[in-house]
Amino acid sequence: MNGTNRKIIYQSNVHITCMVDCFVLNFKVEKAIFYLDSPVSNSGRLKLKILDLLEDYSFKVEVQTITNVDSTLETLDNVITTDAIILDKCKSWINLNREIIEKEISNPMCVNFEFLNNII
């Protein structure tokens, strides 16, 4: 994330709310655990923001700030991330980006790269 702290926290509000509305509520999730890298300067503020934004929802929310998020996520099921290395190593993952695009964005611009299979 780049920009001022204020911009980062504002963008996080939008992303967290969209994630909850698109996925957590639709799939009746009982518990959501957020893992944040503690070495990142805004992780403490982001933890408080997540807890504040989600305190009135019916599911349990846990936010952990830890030193090596990647190694933790690699051992879990139902991981939501865009990090390809973690996606390759974790037990299972959820494509939240697809859920958000399909449900929240009208007329998304999508490019089908399947034709590259014939070229390569």
Automatic annotation (TrEMBL):
Domain DUF5616, residue spans: 15-98
A Pfam family annotated for this UniProt entry: DUF5616
Superkingdom field: Bacteria
Name the UniProt record assigns to this protein: DUF5616 domain-containing protein
Organism expressing this protein natively: Clostridium cavendishii DSM 21758
